[in-house]
Design goal:
The structure holds 3 protein chains of 3 kinds. By secondary structure, chain A is an alpha/beta fold. In chain A, about 25% of the residues lie in helices and about 30% in strands. Chain A has a single domain, classed as HUPs (Rossmann fold), CATH 3.40.50. Chain A contains 6 helices and 15 strands. By secondary structure, chain B is α/β, with parallel strands linked by helices. Helices cover about 30% and strands about 25% of the residues of chain B. In chain B, helix 2 packs across helix 3 and helix 4 runs parallel beside helix 8. Chain C is built from 9 helices and 18 strands. Chain C is globular. The chains are: A alpha/beta, B alpha/beta, C alpha/beta. The interface between A and B is large, with 77 and 93 residues.
């Protein structure tokens, strides 16, 4: 079996969100980059588990990005990928452009399974998996929480409103992965060392259209500062949590 | 024309569908065009009634294949419907179904799509929609640069607006491909919410003085229907299990409500909770750094504040 | 912002471990006197909270020992004052020597322990393995155990100092930045801040990695450089019992201690990394110290480490923590009275030992700021000892970085 896992580079979950050049670009000064958690913890780790069950499985990673993505690609290889493909582009493109690049790899690679994360934690798109599936003409199951394979049939549990649904589908298929698919793994030095010699192919992007452009970014209004509540008047706190913050 | 995909589950419409309909109607009004709905599969409800969310017409594709969801089939049918009706704007709800089809639809129609949208389009000089980015920590204004535009509307981003009126129902005959995805079971999900998924979290630190006092924390958590968490020193001292430790070296969480009792708010702790939507801090030290990151603060003794707050929450819930 | 002029007896720039310790001792020993501590971000949130926080007393550099002993003395004092435990982990230190030079160094260290009346004895390799099941001590020639040693939570230690200091009347401010030491000729007379001027009889710079910038504006080439310190924390495993000792392995250039069921360990990487103090952002809470979280550095040392820690290759590396320590070419602190200046004190250049020596440093500067003699011998830390240097030059930064690379002890 041949699996392709799409990995995206995102700022660390604790990174400071700020913008530059007239709010047109994310200010990445000093940012620690990580593998998008949904791609790593769920898509990649589940793929690694499938490979561990069937040693003949080949596990490829694909990233659309510049050389600054190499450390996170190496980390993904350290966790257990066999080989990575980086489609070399540093320009800011939209989801469709990125999906077009991945679809090109998918079309030529003969993959049985293509995994993505549920969404990236920076663009929050949830779009790439569906776009790739459509471009390649494959079925797509999104927000999967469980994935098993038996022969050429996959059994996938996915989240629906207020519950879950169990689907069966013949391979090949594109699946977007979220919590439940696998438990996050921690890289170790053996993996990190072996990742250094694993192939990381850099290929040039194909021509593809761009449908959307980001005009600018906005930060939500800054927190008003703490509102202090008298410890003898806690009903006021409950009222504020209900009426103002709307969290209870 | 603005076409809103009116998503249904087991023949019933959901809140997110009504949000999408109300939103689509408003977009149509802004563009000076009609809003129409698209319904796929068998529905138990009176489709004329969708008029009260501002649509003038409901296109219904009745094929039974559509009673179970296959993103590929749905995309094919919606695309054909868009072509058949000449819609220029397509609205879907950014729920589980919307997430499954919006990207596909964009690729199939070669149409710009904005996911997790939170605003009406700005059409003064183009077609610009605001969306959530960085998991709610910022917004992006996205320009949709194709003839057909798709908007996947974030949940709870638009108020349902009921108006007077009924919609005309028209059956749309679109050939439907066989589904490749076979639904074999559906289950309702219940059970304990893991800490990382919890919408409310009550957390406590060294200020609680010892594990024997955790009943106070548990009571508040129970009243709020919240998960339990703790600071690093608490986990290190063995007062609470390590899987409850939130912070830089523990787990990172992003609940709607985070209540911190007796935690000073060292930067390592804040790193794990600063994505919380609303933070309430209870600490006797008014200089505790956590107050700077808090939305609401109570300067007081946790041993007095926790039981009182628990009482107030219970009163509020009518217990 | 209104421009306010104020007076204090002492003003300290920097609300890290040193600044707060100084405030603690000064208010304790000089009732009625006024001290202001200025912190532009939040207390103890830069180098202090990123420290591995071994409070090692017994060190080859004997002039550090008295300073650390003071730290051990002050902790219970503050615990009593606050009525709270600081949860210091008195687990002891194991020194593992696996080469002739290390054995010689360890023998010297045993003499230091004896001189300062610290319990220390040799243990067998089996006993060492029993204490720290992750440790494979087969190669060790000598292992010494010093049960009196401990580690702590550095943020707690720093905030115990600040909380007690406040109770004693210290004025500790956050969100206010010192921009300049106000000089009258060669005499420091106060500090210019973003909110006004604070005049004082003594000015103390305790601004960690950022100190050379402030010192330069007062005409002093402060001999230290910010060098990245980094450590890793492994996943949890039964081989890391929470009460197992700190382990120092000079032959692997490693220190290690238990942390939350995992192992916290640091290595002296072959190429340490220093940054000009001018280039460090004001707030390092979002600073990227290493794009690959130090993995390249670690990979160069891992085989050495695996000799003593066989699971080193296979254990999950869960966390990576890095910060800036102020290093000098001779691995000594860089502190004391500013040469050629009056009333200006420099509590800087921690050499990776800041938490351990914080008690002594706090007491020393509190005494000097009060116009009394320094109770400790600071001759080794003399600001003048490297002659005239440019702390921002590439050459100097490199010199300080290599001091860390070659440092063998914890």
């Amino acid at each position: 079996m041949k699996i392709l896992v799409c990995i995206s580079k995102t700022p660390d979950t604790t990174a400071k969100i700020a913008f530059k050049n007239g709010n047109s670009q994310f200010d990445d000064n000093g940012v620690q980059w990580i593998i998008n958690p949904y791609d790593e913890w769920y898509a990649l780790v589940r793929a690694i588990e499938l490979k561990e069950k069937d040693a003949s499985t080949v596990l490829h990673l694909v990233n659309v990005g510049g050389a600054d993505a190499d450390p996170i690609i190496r980390k993904a290889l350290a966790l257990g990928g066999d080989e990575a493909i980086r489609i070399n582009t540093t320009d800011l493109h939209d989801s469709f452009y990125v999906a077009s690049q991945i679809a090109e790899v998918a079309r030529n690679g003969g993959y049985d399974l293509i995994f993505t994360g549920k969404e990236t934690i920076d663009y929050n798109g949830s779009s790439i998996g569906g776009m790739v599936a459509e471009l390649v003409g494959l079925p797509y199951i999104s927000l999967a929480t469980h994935f098993e394979i038996s022969g050429a049939t996959a059994t996938v549990t996915r989240e629906i409103e207020g519950g879950e649904e169990v689907d069966e589908v013949s391979l090949p298929v594109v699946v977007s992965c979220q919590k439940g698919m696998a438990e996050a793994r921690i890289p170790n030095m053996r993996g990190i060392m072996s990742a250094r010699t694993k192939p990381l192919k850099v290929v040039e992007p194909i021509e593809a259209p761009v449908f959307t452009t980001i005009q600018n970014f906005e930060l939500p209004p800054p927190k008003a500062g703490v509102k202090l509540i008298n410890p003898d008047n806690l009903s006021e706190l409950v009222r504020l949590l209900h009426e103002e913050a709307k969290v209870i | 024309m603005v076409l809103i995909f009116a998503d249904q589950t087991d023949g019933q419409f959901k809140k997110t569908t009504f949000e999408a309909l109300s939103y689509g109607a408003k977009v149509a009004e802004q563009l000076g065009v009609h809003a129409e709905a698209l319904v796929l599969g068998t529905v138990n409800e009176n489709l004329n009634s969708l008029g009260k969310y501002g649509v003038t017409k409901v296109h219904h594709v009745r094929n039974e294949v559509l009673n179970s969801f296959d993103a590929q089939v749905y995309t094919q049918v919606i695309s054909e419907a868009v072509k058949a009706t000449g819609a220029k704007v397509v609205v879907v709800a950014h729920n589980n179904t919307g997430r499954a089809i919006a990207g596909r639809l964009s690729a199939r129609l070669k149409a710009a799509m904005v996911p997790a949208a939170v605003s009406l389009p700005d059409t003064t000089g183009g077609f610009i929609v605001k969306k959530v980015v960085f998991s709610g920590k910022a917004f992006a204004n996205v320009s949709l640069n194709t003839d057909i535009k798709i908007i996947s509307l974030n949940m709870n981003a638009f108020k349902i607006a009921a108006v007077e009126g009924t919609a005309e129902v028209s059956v749309l005959d679109i050939p439907v491909e066989a589904a490749k995805v076979k639904v074999v079971a559906t289950n309702k999900v219940t059970g304990e919410i893991p800490l990382t998924e919890a919408t409310r979290v009550v957390s406590a630190g060294r200020g609680l003085k010892g594990p024997e006092n955790w009943g106070l924390v548990e009571n508040l958590a129970k009243a709020l229907n919240a998960a339990l968490a703790c600071s690093r020193p608490v986990a290190d001292s063995g007062w609470r299990p390590h899987h409850e430790h939130v912070g830089q070296t523990g787990i990172a969480i992003a609940p709607n409500l985070y209540v911190a009792a007796g935690i000073s708010g060292a930067i390592q702790h804040l790193a794990g909770v600063n994505r919380s939507k609303v933070i309430v801090v209870i600490n006797k030290d008014p200089e505790a750094p956590f107050f700077k990151a808090a939305d609401y603060g109570v300067v007081g003794d946790v041993f007095e504040v926790l039981p009182k707050l628990t009482d107030e929450v219970q009163k509020f819930k009518g217990v | 912002m209104p421009h306010i002029e104020e007076r204090s007896d002492v003003v300290v720039v920097g609300g890290g471990i040193f600044g707060n310790a100084i405030a603690y001792y000064y208010t304790r020993d000089n009732p009625g006197k006024k001290i202001v501590v200025l912190e532009r971000n939040e207390l103890c949130n830069a180098a202090t909270s990123r420290a591995a926080a071994l409070i090692t007393k017994v060190r080859a550099k004997k002039h550090f020992v008295a300073l650390s002993l003071e730290t051990y003395k002050v902790i219970p004092e503050m615990e009593r004052q606050l009525g709270e435990s600081m949860d210091v982990k008195y687990v002891g230190v194991m020194h593992v020597a696996a080469s002739e030079p290390s054995v010689t160094a360890l023998e010297e260290l045993m003499k230091v322990a004896e001189e300062f009346d610290q319990p220390a004895y040799y243990i067998s390799n089996d006993e060492a393995h029993k204490k720290s099941p992750w440790l494979k001590a087969d190669d060790a020639e000598k292992i010494a155990f010093m049960p009196g040693e401990a580690y702590c939570d550095p943020y707690l230690l720093g905030t115990f100092f600040s909380r007690c200091a406040r109770l004693q009347g210290a004025d500790i401010r956050q969100g206010i930045e010192a921009t300049e030491v106000v000089m009258d000729g060669d005499t420091a007379v106060g500090v210019e801040t973003t909110q006004g001027v604070i005049y004082a009889d003594a000015v103390v710079i305790a601004a960690g990695a950022w100190s050379p910038v402030l010192a330069a504006r007062a005409g002093i080439g402060l001999p230290m450089a910010p060098v990245r310190s980094q450590y890793w924390i492994t996943e949890r495993n039964a081989i890391f019992p929470v009460n197992s000792p700190i382990v120092l392995i000079p032959d692997a250039q490693t220190y290690a201690r238990p942390e939350g069921g995992g192992l916290l360990f640091g290595i002296r990487e072959s190429k340490s990394f220093s940054v000009s103090p001018k280039q460090i952002p004001n707030d390092i809470s979002h600073f990227c110290f290493s794009p690959d979280k130090g993995m390249t550095d670690l990979s160069e040392m891992i085989d050495q480490l695996a000799r003593f820690f066989p699971k080193a290759h296979d254990i999950g590396l869960k966390h990576y923590i890095a910060g800036f320590s102020g290093y000098t070419p001779d691995n000594n602190l860089s502190m004391g009275r500013a040469p050629g200046k009056n009333n200006l004190l420099l509590a800087t250049g921690c050499a990776g030992a800041g938490i351990s020596v914080s008690g002594g440093v706090g007491l020393a500067f509190a005494e000097m700021a009060a116009g009394r003699d320094n109770p400790f011998n600071f001759s080794y830390f003399n600001i003048n000892r490297f002659g005239s240097i440019d702390p921002f030059s590439k050459e100097w930064l490199q010199k300080c970085a290599s001091a860390r690379s070659n440092k063998k002890s914890g």
